[in-house]
Amino acid sequence: MNYVSTRGRAPVLSFDAALLAGLAGDGGLYVPETWPRLTRPDMRALSGLSYAEMAARVMAPFVGGAVAEDDFTAMVVDAYRGFDHPAVAPLTQLGRNQWLLELFHGPTLSFKDYALQLVGRLFDYVLARRGERIALLCATSGDTGSAAIEACRDRASLDIFVLHPKGRVSDVQRRQMTTVASSNVHNVAVEGTFDDCQDLVKAMFNDRDFSDRCRLSAVNSINWARIMAQVAYYFVAAVALGAPGRRFTFAVPTGNFGNVYAAYAARRMGLPVDGFVIGSNVNDVLTRYFASGEMRTAPVRPTLSPSMDIQVSSNFERLLFDYYGRDGARLGPVMERFRKQGRAAFGKTRWRRMARLFAGYSVDDEATKMAIRVIHRQTGQLLDPHSAIAVAAGIARHDHKASTLVSVATAHPAKFPQAVEDATGIRPALPAHLANLFERPERFETLPNDLGPVRDFVTRRLAGGTAS
């Protein structure tokens, strides 16, 4: 399997090279050159396998021989060994033809663990074989940072730099990042938004001299390996509920579009999916696009669901690549104009085709708390704000007679205890392994939203090898 850039001007890479590259050299994102397919017999053969066994089979075509089959399977098994539920990603029934996919049973209580626990091991494996060391850059709106740090801490072959927007992540999210004392972990609180953090990361990648000198790579969902690992749990959920003999709609809380894009990738591989519901908070750039046909950014507003406080959804470019006929030369200039102007239409025909598959639904903070309260009263399930938005969006936009609705729960409610307590009167407790989180010392540096100081910080840390 080879990988091509969505902008068509970067070299075609193998899986291991795309893993290490992260962002393509032309500013685009790597995607598979062709979509592998799982037939109906292939899907039926997945039934009865463990999560790790099923995930390894689903991901194997994307790895394409770059990692020995036995080694890859062993990494997948090891990645999910420490998850706190025997099913790894259990399903809970919420109502008639309506299910919840729980993706918060990993070490940092977020869906990001499902990809990053594997990606950290893949980095270590590939770098050890090459005798190389890299620096990972990560912009986070809350959960990616802690999951990436947990997956990459103390690994001999890499340093990890995590940029989070100062004051715009929950206290639990911040402390999960900043209380890790490992010498290869470096945290930065940026005086800006998540989009600012993301722009700083992309700017460092696009400075080819700096990027090459520091051996930069990405661990955000701009790295294809992240998406690949997320594809697996959509197959796991669907097969458990009767695929390929049953059709599905997935409702996903979405900021950077990576999680719902993984569901779209599963559909391209043959999973019987009728459509996707995108749950947004008031930072609803995607909901507005699917309703109007115009994508227009707006100032980011802080909400109870900070991981979705985003206006530039990077992975949407991967979807557009397919709808532009996989012609990166045509898509590249469009994306560059969008980043400069903050608005784009992408053509009415493309919009109509995408809107037949994707529906958006926006929920403000008061409606989010109402959803948490109502879902708990009706089902006994405590949900964090992001997961509650997914369930509310799915209920609002899905025809339960047409397909089975699976809403995706992306974070443990204890990551957002104040919002849950305000809605239900119940304050969810952190699991035992995080019980002393608020007693641990924090280590991070606050920097302005300015490329120069951030770039200097990375250079200084790599030269000195000092933990933040």
Protein model, in words:
The structure is a single chain. The protein has 468 residues and is of the alpha/beta class. The protein has a domain at 91-110 and 226-424: Rossmann fold (3-Layer(aba) Sandwich), CATH 3.40.50.1100. It has 19 helices and 16 strands. It has helices spanning 15-21, 40-46, 51-63, 69-79, 112-130, 143-152, 171-178, 194-206, 208-214, 224-240, 258-268, 285-292, 316-323, 328-341, 348-357, 365-379, 385-397, 417-424, 451-464, and strands spanning 2-5, 13-14, 30-32, 91-95, 98-102, 134-139, 158-165, 185-191, 216-218, 248-253, 273-280, 295-296, 343-344, 358-362, 404-409, 445-448. The strands form four sheets. A six-stranded mixed β-sheet has the order 4-5-15-10-11-14, sandwiched between helices. A five-stranded parallel β-sheet has the order 9-6-7-8-16, with helices on both faces. Strands 2-1-3 form a three-stranded antiparallel β-sheet. The radius of gyration is 20 Å and the shape is globular. The two termini are 38 Å apart. The mean pLDDT is 94.
Task: Describe how the helices and strands are arranged.
Layout: E1 2-5, E2 13-14, H1 15-21, E3 30-32, H2 40-46, H3 51-63, H4 69-79, E4 91-95, E5 98-102, H5 112-130, E6 134-139, H6 143-152, E7 158-165, H7 171-178, E8 185-191, H8 194-206, H9 208-214, E9 216-218, H10 224-240, E10 248-253, H11 258-268, E11 273-280, H12 285-292, E12 295-296, H13 316-323, H14 328-341, E13 343-344, H15 348-357, E14 358-362, H16 365-379, H17 385-397, E15 404-409, H18 417-424, E16 445-448, H19 451-464
Parallel strand pairs: 5-15, 6-7, 6-9, 7-8, 8-16, 10-11, 10-15, 11-14
Antiparallel strand pairs: 1-2, 1-3, 4-5, 12-13
Helix pairs in contact: 3-4, 3-10, 4-5, 5-6, 5-10, 6-7, 10-11, 16-17, 16-18
